[in-house]
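Now for today's protein.

===
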Amino acid sequence: YVKDFRIDCKSCTKTGGRGIWYIIRKKHYDARHHCFAYVLGEKNEVERCSDDGEPSGTAGRPMLDLLVGAGVHDALAVVTRYFGGTLLGTGGLMRAYSAATKEALENCEIRQKEVGYRMTIATDYVDLGKIQYLAAARELKEENVDYGENVSITYEVPETEIDAFEKELVDKTGGKCKIDRGSKIWIYSNI
């Protein structure tokens, strides 16, 4: 709570900046303002913000400045304000929106993304332990394991490691495992 109105702030990886804003706006339909700021691209090629009816420059711009200053990319912050009867003035609004965004940045989970593959490995039960050991040594995320007559395991493998991991698999299993690189994906990891 800031003075007599409640502010909720959400920061998240951008998958559709305005789309997420509309979802939040619909969820909090009774709120007066839903101000946002987002930065897209590794060099913040796209920067947008909105005061959503607040006086010009009192909400979106301070929020955007905080996102840029924090060095985050592909990020969206939405601050939802419920008016409680106290008029804050332009300085008070700027401080309130800045404080909400700063708090969200301090409490959010910032993640790094990199290009990778969703690799599927088909093997017999004899080589399963070797494959799991090699994957664990590289800290690869195991997405799925299908136990049947043979075993099929799916991992998220960063593009920078894919060739070396494939070579290790072939060497350690004597070429008995079947490897499918699968589709390119974004792999997210905590910083």
Remarks:
- The helical segments are 17-27, 60-70, 89-107, 125-137, 162-173.
